[in-house]
Amino acid sequence: MTLVLEQLLNGVQYGVMLFLLAAGLTLIFGIMGVINLAHGSLYMVGAYAAAVVAAKTGSLWLALPAGLAAAAAVGMAMELVVLRRLYDRDHLDQVLATFALILIFNQAVTILAGRQPLFVAAPAALNGSIEIVAGLTYPIYRLAVIAVGLVVAIGLYLLVNRTRAGMLVRAGATHRDMVRALGVDIRLLYTAVFGLGALLAGLAGVMAGPLLAVQVGMGEQILIMTFVVVVIGGVGSIRGAFFGALVVGVVDTLLRAFLPGLLRQVMSGPEADALGAGLSSMGVYLLMAIVLLIRPKGLFPAHA
Amino acid sequence: MPDAPQRSFAALAGVAALMAALIALPFLAKWAGQPALIPLASRILIYAIAAASLNLALGYGGMVSFGHAAFFGLGGYVVGVLYQAYVGDARVFGLFPGTNQLLVTLPLAMLVSGALALAIGALSLRTAGVQFIMITLAFAQMLFYLFVSLKAYGGDDGLIVRRRNVLFDLDARDDATFYFFCLAAATLVFVALWRIVVSRFGLILGGLRQNETRMEAIGVAPYRYKLAAFVLSGMGAGLAGALMANLLRFVSPDMLHWTKSGELMIMVILGGVGTLFGPLLGAAAFIALETFLTAWTEHWQLALGPILLVVVLFTRGGLHALLARLSGRRS
Predict the structure, then answer these.
(1) Which residues of A231-270 are buried (b: 16+ CB within 10 A; e: fewer)?
(2) pTM value surpassing 0.95
């Protein structure tokens, strides 16, 4: 039972990271209609900036603002220089252009930081584990990640649903042309939303540092999962991104943790491990296909 | 603006010149002491087949498939699995013997990929737009992980096809011979695509892309036409995959990975969406850039990225549109 609980927490932690990326992506997608494949690159930029600063200064508390600033700055520059020209193009042009951006970012980071993966230690205050229920100790750092994710989710909810800026964002997601016609500076809104999305991606990158190896290509790995989350949740919906991320995170983690063991009951060890690994990687995609077949617009469609 | 007969004559002359150049290529390459160009050209032709097939769904049909690696890779695996059974003297699924006959493996690859496209298309076409992109990706990723976990077919490592398939007794070990196989296949595919695009079916497909509601209003059932185009598109990609497995003498889950779907899409967009020869241009440009930039610097992607960016930002319609504008054919 404690094992299941531990894996559930791992799943929530993964889901929270996915949410940070998916929230930005779904807003950019929903409001500007841009398919931004380079969103994962912002996550990578955040992770690298934080890892380098942490290595130079030895302080993760300095690395945090550095990673956030780097991701937000790169994101806004990207919007100003490239994406702004793509808003009225079709999705295919956006795919090609942002794919080109991925190539550029990956190579630039390789040149600047080298091919060796970087490793970041968690800050001393968050090191170690605590016993949350009898018999289950859990790393404090992962709990902190979950807490940060939940705080961001609540903050975003309040921002989008309770403020004037959020009202414009919601209006932009459903009636873009009407918002423009009412005299809102849509370009400023776009850059701001893009900056916010980049900031969240950077935050996810910074927090990923102590959990994963910081390396080139980390952005694409998580990008596909993020798209899955966005589509399951419903394009343009923050609420959808949140629940989608949690579902994807938990399902993926639980399958990986338990499916090989279950298969081992019915077949030999190595075969069960190989098949289990394959099937559990498939699980999330199967989930997405089923969701889309039953609800073609996702669970919480913004344009309902 | 030249009038229609002159234009079709110019187009015919252009295609004839292209064919002549493609036929002469292996001889020229050998004469110039650059035999490595021949497999490179085969690679371009194979990717051109795959990209042109994708273009039927994506460009002409407006179905943005992000999962064509599934059909490409499955076509490759048909060759690999049949070859494995052939050398091992075993039966595929315990049913029928393996083979290394090109005239069996290629049509079978098309058939199997087509069947997969029928299944995936039938489900995916219930969605549209971004959801369609993602659901095709999802199915392709499922197939990718399925083959990664199938130890019987090499799992992660894939299958080695020690010798290329043969055409009756004709061995394709020689790169030039195999190049001509690819050229013949590519010619057939492009002629077929041309016939499809100008047919009644092709016109309906174009109409559906532009305005599905109006087409429905004049009595066309969109689903069947789109599904048929998707299946044809999958079959073409399967043929390309089968040829690729022969060229590389190797098939692995790499051929099924989503980055392969992305590459095919990039080739189509780079060359020109919804044009007959755009995918050929795109495949040639992409493979050539990749090959020559890799030889020039290890950071070749830093050069490729801005090139792609310039193409998409400034050509509007890819290399095909750029060429058309340069030759002054579009006013």
Answers:
(1) bbbbbbbbbbbbbbbbbbbbbbbbbbbebbeebbeeeeee
(2) no
Q: How far apart are CA A50 and CA A54, in angstroms?
A: 6
How high is the ipTM of this complex? 0.79
Element housing B239 (H / E): helix B222-248
pLDDT digits (tens, 9 = 90+) for A55-82: 888 787 889 999 999 999 999 999 999 8
Report CB contact under 8 Å: A285, B262: no
Please choose, from the candidates B84, B109, B122, B151, the residue with its C-alpha nearest in 3D space to the C-alpha of residue B240: B109
Q: Which two tokens stand for residue B170?
A: 């004709």
The answer to whether B50 and B186 have CB atoms below 8 angstroms apart is: no
pLDDT tens for residues A270-303? Answer: 778 878 888 888 888 889 889 988 988 888 886 5
Looking at chain A from residue 188 to 217, which residues have their Cβ under 8 Å from any Cβ of chain B? none
- The answer to whether residue A155 is domain-embedded is yes
Number of neighbouring beta carbons within 10 Å of residue A188: 10
Asked if the structure places residue B3 within a domain, the reply is no
The 3-class secondary structure across B67-91, one letter per residue, is CHHHHHHHHHHHHHHHHHHHHHCCE
* B131 interfaces chain A, CB cutoff of 8 Å: yes
> In this predicted structure, what is the pLDDT of residue B1?
43
The domain tally of chain A equals 1
Token look-up 């690999």 returns B80
Show residues of chain A in contact with B146, CB under 8 Å.
Answer: 278, 282
pLDDT at A146 over 70: yes
Distance in angstroms (rounded) separating the CA atoms of residues B227 and B121: 6
Q: Which phi and psi angles does B165 have, rounded to 5°?
A: -60, 155
> pLDDT tens for residues B91-129?
888 788 888 899 999 999 999 999 999 999 999 998 888
Q: What is the DSSP letter of B127?
A: S
Contact flag B145-A281 (C-beta cutoff 8 Å): yes
Q: How far apart are CA B280 and CA B270, in angstroms?
A: 10
Centroid of chain to Cα B126: 24
Residue spans of alpha helices (H) in chain A = 2-27, 39-57, 60-81, 91-113, 140-162, 164-174, 176-181, 186-208, 218-233, 238-264, 269-294
| Helix, strand counts (H, E) of chain B | 13, 4
- State the residue for tokens 């919906």: A237
- Residue A200 forms part of a structural domain: yes
Domain that holds residue B85: 11-326
CA distance A99 to chain B (A): 8
Q: Distance between CA atoms of A152 and A16, rounded to whole angstroms?
A: 10
A92–B58 C-beta distance less than 8 A: yes
CB count within 10 Å of CB B69 equals 32
Domain of residue A173 covers 2-216
Number of domains in chain B: 1
| β-pair type (A129-133, B96-97) | unpaired
pLDDT computed for residue A177 by the predictor = 80
